[in-house]
Structures are given as C-alpha cells and as structure tokens.
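Here we describe the complex-level prediction in full. Unlike the single-chain runs in Section 2.1, the two entities below were treated as one system.
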Amino acid sequence: MPTEVAGVPVEDTFAEAFDMKATRFVVTAETIDWARDAAAAMCGFGTSVIACGIEIAVESELTSEQTPDGRPGVAILAFAISGKELESQIPRRAGQCVLTCPTTALFAGCDGEKRIPLGKQLRYFGDGFQISKHMGGRRYWRIPVMDGEFLCEEDTGRVDAVGGGNFLLLGRSLHAVAHACRAATAAIAPLAGVITPFPGGATRSGSKVGSKYRGLFASTNEAYCPTLRALVNQPFGDEVHSILEVVIDGLAPDRIAEAMRVGITAACEAVGPAGLVGVTAGNYGGKLGRHHFHLAEVLQ
Amino acid sequence: MSGLHLSLQVAPTAAVDASALGGNLLELSVAEVARLPLPTIGINHTICVGDCFAVAARDDGRGVIEGDLRRFHRLGSRWAAGELRVDGDVGEGFASQMQGGAVVLRGNALAGAAEQLRGGRLQILGNVAEELGRPLSGRRSGISGGRVIVTGNAGARAGYRMRRGLILILGDCGDAAGCDLVAGTLVIGGTVGNDLGAGMRRGTLVVPQTATLSSVRFSSPRQEQLGIARLLAADIATDSPAIAAALRTNIGRAVGDLSAGGMGEVWVYGH
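The structure predicted for the assembly as a whole is:
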C-alpha cells in the first residue's frame, strides 16, 4: 500500500548513505552572539565533501549550564570521508575562525579513541608563551591573545558516522517547496546528533556522479531538473515544477532515520498535497553506500 | 581484587620501610600479606607484616590499615589501583610514587607525603609536614600527575619541584610553598608563609588575597578574567566550594619568579 503523509504520496524508494568520520566540538564565548559568529565562520564553505572537504554545521546552541566553562556556546558537528581530512580541516578552521573570534574558547564535544587535534596544533600560535594545563583528565592550552587568553582543549574525539541521508520534496511551485523545505529543516534542527549542512538545510543542486566534462566528478542531475523535462526522461510528471533536497549527516543511522521521519512529516504537513506532488529520495541503485533508508520504513 | 584489613597490634621498635604495604597489595592473599617484609631503617633487620598487624580479609574490595603508624615510612607506596584507607598518623613518604586508584589518610603525615606521586587521588584528612609531593632523593621532578587534597595544614616547601597535577591544601601552608615549581597547579586555602613560589619556572599557584608576594620575584597582580580559572573552579568545587566560588569572580594574576627567569603565575583570589 502506497505511503502517504498528510495526503502527500511518498515514493517506495530509499536514500543511500555512506560511512563517514565525524567529530563534535563546542565553542563558547562571553555572549551567545560571539559564539554564533565563530560558528558561522567555522561552518562556512562546509556544505559538501565534493569540494569543501568536510560537511559541517551547528548541531545545537548550548546554555551556560551545558558548557565546560559555564558560558553560552554552540556544539558543532563535522563530517568527512576520512579521518585524515578531518585532521586537516578542523585545526585550520579553528585557527582562522575560533582563535580569531573575540572572547571564544574551544572544547572537545565527543569521546573517541581516535583524536582530532585542536589546541595540540593551535598552541604554536602562542610562540612559547602558551601554557598547558591538565584538568579532570583533559589537557587544555592557554594561548595569549589580545583580549586575554584563548582557551582551547588539546583535541576532540573522532567517531564513525553516516553521511548523505536525504529526501527530495517534489513541489508544485518554488514557493510551496521552499516553504515545505524550511518546515522540514526547522523540525530537524532540534534533533541531537544530526546536521543538515547545506544552506538553510537544503540544496537545489542535486548531483549525479560524473560529467560530460573531463575532471568533473559530479554534475547536475538532469533527471530532477524540471526545466529539462522536454529534453530528458524524468521520473515525475508535469505537475512538478520545483524540487529541493534535504541532506542529513548523522552520528548513527537511527538518528538519520529519525531526522528523515521528522523532516518529511513536517514538510508534508506544512503545505500538504496542494504544495507537494510527492516525496522521494536519492540513491545510486544501492551500489555505493551501505546505509539504505527506505522511506516507508523510516515513516513507520 | 579482594579486600584486606590490617590492624596494628605491636608497633615496631624502630622505623620501618613499609613500602611493601602498597603497590599490588590488594592482589595478595592474607597469608602472602602477612609474610611481606618490613625492613628496619638503619638496622640490618627485617620483620614481617604479620609480626605487627592482624591481617584479615574484607569483602568490600578495599584495603584498610589502622593504628599508630608513625614508624611506618612509605606506606601506600606505588599504589596503583583500588581504594586504600589508612586510619592513624603515618610516617614519611606516605603514598610515595602513587600511580593510580584512591588513597585516603585519616590522620597526619610526616615529611614527603605524596613524594613524586604520578597519578590517582590522594586525600589526607589531616596535616602534612614539610615537602609535600617532593621528588625522590636525587630526582629532579616532584609530583607529575594525579590529585592531592589536604584538608589540614602543610609544612614548608609544599609542592616542591611539582611538574604536573593538582595539589589542594585547604589549610595553612608553611614557607616556600610551590618553590622551584616546574608546572602543575597548587591551590592554598589558608595563610601562606614567606618565599611563596621562590624559583618557580612555570605552573600555577592559587592563593588567597592575604598572601604576600615578593616584589622582586613577581609582577604586581593584575585583575584578569581567565577561562581556565572557571575550569579549575569546576574541578575543585566538590573539595572546596569556597575557593571555587572565589575563582569564578575576578582574580589577580602575577607572573614569576622573574628573578629566576620564570614564566609561572600566581592567582590571587578575592582580589
């Protein structure tokens, strides 16, 4: 029996997701505004591993009771194809985006035997004036800067994770699908352990593997571009005018499944069948990623 | 790991090296513990634990030693895992080179308690004599990890040559606290003697406003807000809520020992 949510049909297909490496860290500051600013800089140009190296976004905002130094902050999740890429990207981003941001401090946000360096690399900015402190089994670095000290934990944990959970919203209009998309990402935002790394949590440039041009390993997925309906075969009818894709990275498969359920439900309830023609998901025939999120199952 | 209870029956006539009552003590049977040697210091004579103590098993996995133990030096030496409780005053070098686990002393300790301690949690519910956490004779570094809490007073040169870890002294401290400090953190709750931090190279001394800093050795304390102070406050909040509360407000920070080319720091709370 076909699945429907709020009267919107959901295709019997699955989202194909991949194994990734992930880390979490916490940025605190004198006020939440500074923490947000540092996080915005750190998460910039971090939408897709295709060209950014990592997928990174704010997981949640934290109250002063939830942070190590009793100040407001944000938790950030970052995902990459390899641990080596995380080890390369995180210290560089932390050095340019958090170390530079007034009043901030940087702490580990997850455990894990494998570690991603934070202060372990940034300490050299202290040029010999840096101070190390061991406290509660953790090592911190105090780097003198112009507003006082930049406090930074030695490293943070690295864990196995899943990236590329997704669903596509097939809209009757750009306005309707954009509204549904916002509803979906807003519903996903409070969930722990997941991020939607694209701008606003969604992307319009769903891609296929490869290109007619040499050197490009991803290009537009013409099968899902409504303006090309007269030129290529497409798996939907004329009533679809606009499509957006919500991409989800998570620390575990069950968190992605939960985020898909919450997001699809919110999108469908926001605009109903008058706004959405249907919901589907992106996959590569199940040959590339070992995590398959069947829409009918996640919506149960 | 089985528990053990040692109750002092006959005190030795001279000081003994009790370092056998440490390390892997809880892995031994009652009979094995009773046969452990206690060499008499300065005399070529060795007695056994069973000559002094009534040894019994406990079923709670803890080690408990009780009695007037002032002639027992290096008790709890190299303690590595599990819990040891000592009820009574102890001799020199208590918990020397401790590596892990938890040791609680309900009594006073003579000189050199926590000598070159490397890890674990040592809690002394009493006073300690001079050179808390000193290096072993001939060694360069004192405490190199772990956590030492003294609820009473400490004698001179507490934290001598400390290299890492935390010492928290809730009572008063004698002269030259934190002298020749290499790194680590020494927190003092009561009054502080002369020559605080003499020769310190790095590390952090945390003292109340009443402490006197040598103007030759240290810069004038300057009011600062330090994130690391908030972490230290959280870390010691259970052991000393009062000091933790003081650290959450502004502190004064001085740097030194400048006369020794040091880059250490003294935090003055209540500044």
